[in-house]
Amino acid sequence: MAFRNDFLWGGATAANQVEGGWKEGGxxxxxxxLMPHGSTRYETGxxxxxxxxxxxxxNYPSHEAVDMYHHYKExxxxxxxxxxxxxxxxxxxxxxFPDGDEAEPNEEDLRYYDDLIDTCLEYHIExxxxxxxxxxxxxxxxKYGGWRSRKMIDAFLKLCRVLFTRYKGKVKYWLTFxxxxxxxxxxxxxxxxxxxxxxxxxxxEITAVHHELVASALATKLAHEIDPLNKIxxxxxxxxxxxxxxxxxxxxxxLADNREVYMFIDVQxxxxxxxxxxxxxxxxHAVIPxxxxxxxxxxxxxxxxISLSYYSSRVSTADPQxxxxxxxxxxxxxxxxxxxxxxxxxxxxxxxxxxxxxELYDRYEKPLFVVENGLGAKDVVEKxxxxxxxxxxxxxxxxxxxxxxxxxxxxxxxxxxxxxxxxDLVSNGTGEMEKRYGFIYVDKDNSGKGTLxxxxxxxxxxxKKVISSxxxxxx
Length: 475
Ligand code: BG6
Prior knowledge:
By secondary structure, the protein is of the alpha/beta class. 39% of the residues lie in helices and 14% in strands. It has an eight-stranded parallel β-barrel with strand order 1-2-3-4-5-7-13-14, surrounded by four helices. Strand 13, helix 14 and strand 14 form a beta-alpha-beta unit. The longest helix has 26 residues. It is globular. It binds 6-O-phosphono-beta-D-glucopyranose.
């Protein structure tokens, strides 16, 4: 058998993409509640929109999402039916501290997470909690400018202390920040950054990253102090960059692009900024806002495991004209003529998945946990109510097979695998509902209309077999 007996098969979501209930339970306003559906979403995510509260008549998909806030029992029961061993979800910071750093946490919504976690445990589903998946309380954006301020570290640690204490013995696996490298690509979403005209944006992003890195190290320390059984992971938006040709210039560009992905988890895993990273920062006219003791903190508290999202590989070219021909999860890439793409232009590359896993394992020699992988696609509900999604099964089958080869043939140490959006959810990049990843369909369209009814797709039954055979039966 390729995978360990305790391999954690499951699915993943994020609070703002599934929960809804944006004003319920005492929840406060978060950056992600201001991300509209439609043409202004991308600019808003880049931090170029001066937005502080929702505008009338605009569709903000996170406000209702798929209403898991009210459907979680039904949804987790279906995850249990699939045999999921783990469920990755995130805690909405603004449910616990609505404004970000009140003196006391919000008991009402803590009870929501108590019950969500207990429901998982009832179905023998191991909770895997992302503490911060793209949400920054607007209270802290207004007060401090988001993660550009060092004050965010204390606010985050306060949140961590509440969670580690309350869920001691129930939650063992934690991720500090989702896709930390996304700060360079979607800074308002990833770190609550809104920019002034003419600001050195890279400087602000590096400042925010440094604060998150220190916060992540201190959270790791705290987690181990509160419960030595806690396992903490970093999380990176991964995907190998290939050189477009064997021209050494393309190869050098691929090296640089790959390093831009590793730069921050190098710190989380190895405990210091890599030499090339320091040069990159200098070349962008930025400085790391080190304070006394930061270097020691980063060195003393590395993560226990490396987690990653993988959707596609990418292609680097030294020719600036060719650099942005297609997209892969907000990362620009040149076109790879050997690969097919999803309907959203993301290049499909299972072998690239095996390569990516190998690169990460070679580099860090720590267990890997794939916490996002999947295909965003349109689904059709047939007249009889069934949903046939062979394209999704084909994508996942090929990727699981590639992961299996990484374990069996290459010796990569894998802890688990959670597919992205095990239940349909709002797309982070586009705000669409109809870009679906789920095994469970949710009846809702891009304009926000629908009954929210849940329907099992063909892939639901397929994944159930994959899990029960521990990845042996992929047919
Ligand atoms: C990752 C994020 O970047 O990719 C998720 O962690 C996101 O939040 C996922 O949903 C897929 O991207 P998209 O744009 O298809 O939702």
